[in-house]
Amino acid sequence: MSKLPHIGTSIFTVMSKMATDYQAINLSQGFPNFPIDVRMTEILARLAKTDIHQYAPMAGYPPLLEKIAQLTLDHYQRKVNPSTEILITAGATEAIFASIQAFVQPQDEVIILDPSYDCYEMPIILSNAKPIRIALKEDYSPNFEAISQHLSTKTRMLILNNPHNPSGKIWTENDFIQLEKIIENYPDLLILSDEVYEFITFENKHISINTREKLKDRSLIVSSFGKTLHLTGWKIGYLIAPENLLEEVKKVHQYLVFSVNSLAQASINEYLTVFDVNEVAQLYSEKRNFFKHLLKETAFDLLPCEGTYFQTASYQSISDEKDVDFTKRLVTEFGVSTIPLSVFYGDQTDLNRIRFCFAKNDELLLQAAERLLKIK
């Protein structure tokens, strides 16, 4: 008997396969299609010839832990202990899975804010706990009234995703103030903050849980080198949390993967000496603006994109089809693969919106725009 009977093939796999089958332009799955920095490939090639191929320490390659501590201090003015408060993980997904498995007990409740990334719910169910799906507002800002109504002594964890996938929304100072206020009466509630797009924000600066004095001691903060350094296939993430929380996560991590790819960790460590993460926002800001300009004459209504490398769009002026049907028709009739937003909701809320990934080279974005201009 299946433990996850309702889990099928993910929409990302479905749409990417359709893109291949119909030779469509793939703006669905969230990964860059341009080469990584040549400096990284040179570092990787050189280190591959050294003695770096055995198990790394369980918590991570010590020099890389030191780099992350410095990065956190530089960007968030938070001093973390690299030996006890940082864990290198097999991608952000493992950090999320291990954190939930470490703390969520049977019958606990975990709040997920929809639309949400699809990896949150499964580890909650495997813990015999209850996911509580609460919709964000239509502009993707948090609905604190609804969150407050669902908070109780059963609430073990609240999962945040900021900057938000799929919408590109980022939390404001006032959002955090409200959050701090409504959870102060629930001292056992933990926050799992998915911040994998933290360095991909534009006009407004990302506010990290790392900067919130009232929250950071009860929070597990997830980051991703895959997203920041355009290395999604390397699956290298990290987790920052107080020592008492991280010790529990390590108990899961050591039996889940034990340690993470040693060559990748060593290569990232050296690359961070020559790469400025501030370059990431500039790169994707230019791509966002370029893609937005290309779609200006289409029938799509583009929603604000404050962060991430995703552009959400409404197609209400084009069709009243369900979004899953519309995205499949985009592939078969127009040769562009996107993601429907209803799949990010527990109840499949359909607002006639889709998500484009603009982390692609200019040539591909131009080709996609030419096809999208034909849609009326």
Describe the protein in words.
Pfam families: Aminotran_1_2. InterPro entries: Aminotransferase_I/II_large, Kynurenine-oxoglutarate_AT, PyrdxlP-dep_Trfase, PyrdxlP-dep_Trfase_major, PyrdxlP-dep_Trfase_small. Belongs to the class-I pyridoxal-phosphate-dependent aminotransferase family. GO terms for molecular function: kynurenine-oxoglutarate transaminase activity; pyridoxal phosphate binding. This protein is α/β, with parallel strands linked by helices and 376 residues long. It has 2 domains: 11-30 and 277-372, Aspartate Aminotransferase, domain 1, CATH 3.90.1150.10; 39-271, Type I PLP-dependent aspartate aminotransferase-like (Major domain) (Aspartate Aminotransferase, domain 2), CATH 3.40.640.10. The protein is 38% helix and 15% strand. The chain has helices spanning 11-21, 38-47, 62-76, 91-103, 121-126, 144-150, 173-183, 225-228, 243-256, 262-271, 278-294, 323-334, 362-372, and strands spanning 25-26, 86-89, 109-114, 130-135, 155-161, 190-194, 219-224, 237-240, 301-302, 310-314, 336-337, 339-340, 353-357. The strands form 3 sheets. It has a 7-stranded mixed β-sheet with strand order 2-8-7-6-5-3-4, with helices on both faces. The chain has a 4-stranded antiparallel β-sheet with strand order 9-10-13-12. Strands 1-11 form a two-stranded parallel sheet. β9 and β10 (310-314) form a beta hairpin. α2 crosses α10 (262-271), α4 packs across α9 and α11 runs parallel beside α13 (362-372). The termini are far apart.
